[in-house]
């Protein structure tokens, strides 16, 4: 942040402010001018309200000064001359700048925009000791004052980052309007998950001016995957298939009808008409939205198909290939530049955002058009600073290479506050130990010329990680901060007499992370405590500090805040205690040992009795920690032998592991000994807390989510003639799965799955199957014959159908591989659904059936029957 203070030497007028002198609220009045904007009026009322909360007397808000007191002029009433030096461009970094000027006879608070004026008021209140660490009363700290002090001088504030985003959405326990209020008070200016669509969804009509009176937020057409909005398939594809990606002789529209922004094909990014359509779309948006500042040109999510027409191929990049040969960055930048150049003719000061993401993340040496903003999606080690950890070297090198061609045109999209958002409970007590990461990473971003900042986040972790979210907001405004002073101020205001102990606890944990060999590269893993961080020594010291914090004399609010920290530590203790009890310490890794007759779960760990497991579960329930993370670790960490049960006839052999999610790990052709299911050969040494682990084979999930209930569970089973029957219960739902070989001499395997509601209430749910198939040739080239809803057959390949929803009419398809051997698949269900093919490696692909959601009354069931048949030449 550019921050300049000019101190003035002024004669002291009668009844006026003296340098640094105390002023009682009775001498103040807040002046808005005769026709204030809604934001200026709101800023004045906020200033009056908080001065009233501090002193007991709220100054009057008046249109003109009365002459009887010291006026605080708000916004335009302060005079335009104070902000004349700032750049007034909508997309300029100085748009949110503001000035606070204290003169002997008046105070001026004004911004380069309405939003800047409100920020100026909150800065003035922060200088008086007000703090907003978290939405609502839990995070608000307003000191008691007899009088206020306003040192003379002029202070100018310019942010370090133009865009300042912690993308927080709605969740239980946090009022949506208070969340937006917190964001404005901490100068976050773009929250995609709090745009007006969601404001209208979560707030009543009388509160839907929540953004308007706070100066609004930055206006973007959208913030992510939006090419389907610019060149919609339903509008153009039938008459202009040439606008879309050509691949293996066919044109591919963007996305699918059910997921228009995911999968499918990209545009033909070299087609001049496509470039014109996209440019006109952006110009039209800016015409209709005078405050609009950014429009992305962002392809669909997932592994999309890129065009292979001659012009596109000139720009390099090979579909579904990793590394430099598969990079589509040259295409992406060339396309973004072409669109931006046309937009700049009318709107040179607005921005066209071009992402560096997925297979277009590798840097190229093409200069950017002046109105292009490049947004780099940063992964790597989420626990350590980008410039502080060797595990982030590749990311750092890529980021700095982009910075060389895009200085002051560079933004970032981070993920380190996201945790296990998609499956975590509404309020999750896990700790995200990232304060040191924030301290070093955001200043590093600024040092390489970055001027837009965004991180995805989950509101589910917010209440138990208040410091992490608050620090991110503060560093996004100004990276020139004294970390120790910020932490001291946070702890002192939040925790009262417990502050010294909690401050030392934060430092203890952050030091342990900094010096550990813990490098979570999946953002959900960041939310799982690691024994590499919470060693016996660190855990004991933390327990001692928090014991003293818990015994401190506190008021009601301070007690509630300290209790959140204590709850989080109990979550850590229980989680680490479980891992330690199961044989994990700072040096241990987890693995599975695969064998022909059995798998050994955690072969290096300890065997536990049923009583041991019961004690761990009881303790987890007692401290409120019996969640997905705990159950995942307990399932993986118990050392045990899990038999592979075999079904066999003269043509086929099938291997099933009931204790490993009822998984089918083998479907082996008796004639060729080829296993059509993917059975990894590696033991898979990894972090025990990693959310998804590739066990291989066939698996099922309850619900729409990936790796949902039933995936890592122990199934009860019984053997029957030619069949294995298994069952698993969540308490509400019971999943029964029968694997059989229905014909003694044919290579046919049948899987019958029945999901039944055993509760007394109607439950909305679904069932998802996920077989991973092994292929001796290139998996993407596997040929498909798909039966369509009209009964016709479409011939295709796995690559061509990658991540597309295929209506499961009769659910029939035939897959042909090298040598002519074919695998026929058929699915039937009472819930509808779609098939999805997804190439997962050069020699594997998945054939998922995503059953449709159904509302199940008590006793009702979802039923899915599948058959796999090997067809020989």
Structure description:
The chain is α+β, with helices and mostly antiparallel strands. Helix content is 26%, strand content 25%. It has 19 helices and 42 strands. The strands form ten sheets. It has a nine-stranded antiparallel β-sheet. Strands 1-11-6-7-5-3-4 form a seven-stranded mixed β-sheet, with helices on one face. Strand 19, helix 11 and strand 20 form a beta-alpha-beta unit. Helix 15 (536-550) runs antiparallel to helix 16 and helix 16 runs parallel beside helix 18. The longest helix is centred in the middle third of the chain and has 26 residues, at 556-581. It is globular. The termini are far apart.
What do the pLDDT scores average to? 92
Unreliable residue runs? 5-15
Q: Write down the Rg.
A: 30 Å
| Residue share in β-strands | 15-25%
Q: Report the biggest beta sheet as strand number plus sense, adding barrel if it closes.
A: 9 strands, antiparallel
Count of helical regions: 19
User: What is the terminal-to-terminal distance?
Assistant: 70 Å
Can you give the helix content as a percent range? 25-40%
What spatial order of strands do you see in the largest sheet?
28-29-30-31-42-38-37-34-35
């Amino acid at each position: 942040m550019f921050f300049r203070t000019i101190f003035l030497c002024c004669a002291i007028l009668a009844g006026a402010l003296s340098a640094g002198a105390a002023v009682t609220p009775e001498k103040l009045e807040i002046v808005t001018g005769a026709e204030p904007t809604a934001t200026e009026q709101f800023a004045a009322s906020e200033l009056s309200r908080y001065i009233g909360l501090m002193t007991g007397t709220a100054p009057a808000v008046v249109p003109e000064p009365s002459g009887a007191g010291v006026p605080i002029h708000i916004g335009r009433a302060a005079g335009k001359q104070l902000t004349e030096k700032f750049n007034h461009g909508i997309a300029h970094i100085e748009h949110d700048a503001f000035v606070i000027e204290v003169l002997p006879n008046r105070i001026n608070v004004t911004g380069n925009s309405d939003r800047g004026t409100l920020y100026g008021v909150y800065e003035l209140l922060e200088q008086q000791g007000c703090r907003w660490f978290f939405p609502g009363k839990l995070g608000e700290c307003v000191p008691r004052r007899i009088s206020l002090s306003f040192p003379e001088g002029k202070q100018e504030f310019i942010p370090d980052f133009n865009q300042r985003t912690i993308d927080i959405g709605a969740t239980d326990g946090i009022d949506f309007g208070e969340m937006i209020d917190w964001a404005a008070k901490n100068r976050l200016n773009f929250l995609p998950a709090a745009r007006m669509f969601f404001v209208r969804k979560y707030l009543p009509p009388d509160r839907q001016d929540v953004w308007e009176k706070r100066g609004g937020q930055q206006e973007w057409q959208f913030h992510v995957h939006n090419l389907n909005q610019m060149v919609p398939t339903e509008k153009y594809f039938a008459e202009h298939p040439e606008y879309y990606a050509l691949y293996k002789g066919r044109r591919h529209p963007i996305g699918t009808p059910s997921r228009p922004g995911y999968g499918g094909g990209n545009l033909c990014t070299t087609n001049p008409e496509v470039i014109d359509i996209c440019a006109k779309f952006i110009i039209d948006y800016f015409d209709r939205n005078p405050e609009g500042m950014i429009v992305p040109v962002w392809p669909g999510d997932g592994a999309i198909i890129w065009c292979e027409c001659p012009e596109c191929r000139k720009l390099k990049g090979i579909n579904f290939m990793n590394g430099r040969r598969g990079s589509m960055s040259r295409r992406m930048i060339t396309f973004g530049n072409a669109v931006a150049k046309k937009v700049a003719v009318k709107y040179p000061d607005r921005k066209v955002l071009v992402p560096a993401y997925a297979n277009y993340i590798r840097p190229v040496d093409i200069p950017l058009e002046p109105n292009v903003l490049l947004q780099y999606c940063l992964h790597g080690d989420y626990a350590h600073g980008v410039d502080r950890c060797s595990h982030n070297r590749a990311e750092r090198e890529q980021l700095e290479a982009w910075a060389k061609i895009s200085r002051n045109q560079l933004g970032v999209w981070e993920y380190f506050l996201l945790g296990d958002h998609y499956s975590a409970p509404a309020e999750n007590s896990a700790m995200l130990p990232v304060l040191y990461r924030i301290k070093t990473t955001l200043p590093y971003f600024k040092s390489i010329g970055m001027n837009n900042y965004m991180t995805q986040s989950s509101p589910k972790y917010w209440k138990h990680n208040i410091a992490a979210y608050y620090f991110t907001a503060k560093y996004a405004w100004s990276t020139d901060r004294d970390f120790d002073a910020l932490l001291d101020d946070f702890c002192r205001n939040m925790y009262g007499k417990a502050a010294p102990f909690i401050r030392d606890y934060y430092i203890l944990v952050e030091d342990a992370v900094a010096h550990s060999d813990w490098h979570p590269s999946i953002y959900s893993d960041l939310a799982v405590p690691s024994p590499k961080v919470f060693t016996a020594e660190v855990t004991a010291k933390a327990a001692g500090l928090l014991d003293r914090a818990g015994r401190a004399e506190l008021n009601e609010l301070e007690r509630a805040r300290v209790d959140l920290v204590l709850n989080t530590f109990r979550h850590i203790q229980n989680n680490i205690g479980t891992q330690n009890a199961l044989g994990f310490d700072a040096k241990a890794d987890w693995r599975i040992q695969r064998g022909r007759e059995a798998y050994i779960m955690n072969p290096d760990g300890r065997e536990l009795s049923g009583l041991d497991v019961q004690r761990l579960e009881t303790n987890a329930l007692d401290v409120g920690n019996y969640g997905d993370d705990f159950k995942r670790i307990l399932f993986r960490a118990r050392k045990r032998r899990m038999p592979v049960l075999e079904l066999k006839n003269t043509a086929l052999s099938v291997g099933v592991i009931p204790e490993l999610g009822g998984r089918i790990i083998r479907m082996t052709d008796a004639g060729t000994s080829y296993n059509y299911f993917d059975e990894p050969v590696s033991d898979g040494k990894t972090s025990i807390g990693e959310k998804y682990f590739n066990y291989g084979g066939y698996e099922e999930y309850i619900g729409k989510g990936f790796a949902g209930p039933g995936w890592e569970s122990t199934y009860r089973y019984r053997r029957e003639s030619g069949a294995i029957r298994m069952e698993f219960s969540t308490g509400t739902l019971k999943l029964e799965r029968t694997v059989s070989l229905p014909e003694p001499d044919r290579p046919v395997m049948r899987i019958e799955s029945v999901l039944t509601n055993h509760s007394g209430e109607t439950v909305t749910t679904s069932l998802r199957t996920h077989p991973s198939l092994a292929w001796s040739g290139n998996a993407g080239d596997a040929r498909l014959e798909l039966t369509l809803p009209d009964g016709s057959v479409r011939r295709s390949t796995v690559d061509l159908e990658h991540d597309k929803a295929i209506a499961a009419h009769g659910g029939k398809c035939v897959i042909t591989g090298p040598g002519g051997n074919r695998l026929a698949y058929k699915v039937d269900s009472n819930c509808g659904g779609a098939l999805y093919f997804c190439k997962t490696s050069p020699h594997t692909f998945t054939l998922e059936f995503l059953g449709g959601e159904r509302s199940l009354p008590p006793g009702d069931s979802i039923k899915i029957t599948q058959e796999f048949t090997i067809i020989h030449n």
